[in-house]
Automatic annotation (TrEMBL):
Annotated ranges, domain Alanyl-transfer RNA synthetases family profile: 1-481
Region of the whole protein represented: 1 to 481 of 898
CC annotations in GO: cytosol
GO-annotated molecular function: alanine-tRNA ligase activity; aminoacyl-tRNA deacylase activity; ATP binding; tRNA binding; zinc ion binding
Full protein name: Alanine--tRNA ligase
Required cofactor(s): Zn(2+)
Amino acid sequence: MRTADIRQRWLDYFASKDHHVVPSVSLVSPDPSILFTIAGMVPFIPYILGTEPAPWPRVASVQKCIRTNDIENVGRTTRHGTFFQMNGNFSFGDYFKAGAIDFAWDLLTSSQDEGGYGLDGDRLWVTLWNEDHEAYEALTKTIGLDPKHIVRLPREENFWDTGQPGPAGPCAEWHYDRGPAYGPEAEGGDVDPGGDRYLEIWNLVFDQFVRGEGQGKNYPLLGELDQKAIDTGAGLERIAYLLQGKENLYEIDEVYPVISTVEDLTGRRYGADPEDDVRMRVIADHVRSALMVIGDGVRPANEGRGYVLRRLIRRAVRAVRLLGVEDEALPLLLPVSKDAMKASYPELEASFDTISQVAYGEEEAFRRTLTAGTTILDTAVQRVKSSADGGTPVLGGAEAFQLHDTYGFPIDLTLEMAAEQGVQVDEKAFRDLMAEQKRRARADALAKKTGHADLRAYEHLHKDLTTPVEFLGYTDTQAAV
Ligand code: ATP
Ligand code: MG
Ligand code: MG
Ligand code: MG
């Protein structure tokens, strides 16, 4: 089944169960507290919080998502994309736990001829909050799931909230056991999906309680919500790689064609070298994310969404370089990604001229940066080498910082290119300077916002930035390229 068909099957299934199908909203989050749409529920937040009445009791969607917090996972785990699609079904005061569990089981395990995904029910495992007896009953009695496949976890592991007093509730997460080839059997029911064996595919969130004040998950449950809600998210790409019999998310039909093109471009084979494989997956993922993000109107910039886009493109271009190719790469790769995505997103065809101009322009700019930075780095490296006097030559943190700050030269590139010439970098001093710069930028932003920058106000901002929040805010986008 093509990913586009798996997507359509989701929508058809829930439409047949009286859900109103809504199109994906933009990757530019409609909720102003976050940069990108990070989950299917984002457009429905007002209905879940109860601040607006829901126009429909049952909704289904396949939502485009960006999660920058997963950027370092890309290519290294089997399951994380920076861009991915979250299939969702939602109930606002309509069906609750038993209904949501029924739908999940039915869709996952019904045969493909019957409109389901045809997964083997004996391989499904579910993690539950240890006090959720209602969900446990529904799973064991109605579905008949083997109790050995139900893992009961404390609130810290399996409970959703917004980080604020308001709605909260337990989750039921569905995992698919990929078998012994992917790791040892869960011991004591530990299906922690850090490993590859038990793949988390679908999270059912039961918005059930009103929570009070408290840190982390340590808050009182004050009672039940008047209007309970169901909010679910299933990774389309994760279902796709199971159904397509692929090893990971980067090998599905919507992603792999870019890897094939990288093979042609570089003359290297996917599967021949683990580090090259990671680079190829990063390229395929980031090119796709850049395509979709630009398609939704984001432009490269030094902050906010534009900075995330810039970082995606730079990481992709750099990965191509590390595979030994210095020529422009996006003009070859981006059209391939667009062709792989257009079955589900036909609008990409019409906007591709604009999208490609933006992407190619950014690649050009980065290539110039690399050229200028390389000259400066080489000069600095020669200098510290000649003055090392027999000891290990070390490039100062201030120089690495200047390369980053003035020339946009990423620190990992500085580290790698210095190491190639036997030179270390004072990374700690670099990080200290970065932290100092961030601190100043925050204080400046606050001064701009409030017109003054007294310490009390700064502390308040600092608290906002460090308090755990449900959604990924601006801090998440500030890591160095
Ligand atoms: P994981 O533990 O694997 O990082 P998660 O618990 O962070 O996933 P949820 O927030 O529960 O994910 O999101 C709901 C579903 O969306 C997940 O069960 C998964 O199928 C999918 N998903 C989440 N993050 C990604 C991602 N980066 N790439 C692809 N699919 C994802
Ligand atoms: Mg995650
Ligand atoms: Mg998880
Ligand atoms: Mg989850």
